[in-house]
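Exercise 7b. C-alpha cells:
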C-alpha cells in the first residue's frame, strides 16, 4: 500500500540556499527508494507569522521504502546540512483519496 506524507518545513531565517541544497539531495536519495516529492508549495507569509517555508506532498510505494529512505547512510550524512537549514518539520502520514466529481 502506498504511503503519502504531508510535511510542513520551517527553515532558519536566511537559510534558503542551504534548504534548497538539502532538499535537492534528499529528493535524489528519495528517488532511489521509489519516493518522490510530488508537490512543493511555497507559503506566502507576512512578517512575523510563524508559518512553514514550504509544504511538501511526498509519496513512497510502501512503508518499507520509506523506512529504507530514512535509514539511507547518504541521507544520514546530510544531517548537519539539514540542521543548518531546517528548524522544524511537522509531518502527517496518510493515504491519497480520489478527488470529488465536479
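Sequence design result:
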Amino acid at each position: 500500500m502506498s504511503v503519502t506524507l504531508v510535511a510542513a518545513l520551517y527553515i532558519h531565517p536566511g537559510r534558503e540556499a542551504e534548504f534548497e541544497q538539502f532538499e535537492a539531495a534528499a529528493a535524489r536519495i528519495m528517488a532511489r527508494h521509489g519516493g518522490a516529492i510530488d508537490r512543493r508549495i511555497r507559503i506566502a507569509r507576512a512578517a512575523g507569522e510563524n508559518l512553514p517555508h514550504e509544504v511538501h506532498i511526498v509519496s513512497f510505494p510502501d512503508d518499507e521504502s520509506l523506512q529504507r529512505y530514512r535509514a539511507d547512510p547518504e541521507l544520514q550524512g546530510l544531517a548537519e546540512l539539514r540542521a543548518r537549514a531546517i528548524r522544524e518539520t511537522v509531518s502527517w502520514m496518510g493515504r491519497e483519496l480520489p478527488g470529488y466529481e465536479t
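Instructor comment: Residues 4 and 59 are 5 Å apart (CA to CA). The radius of gyration is 14 Å.
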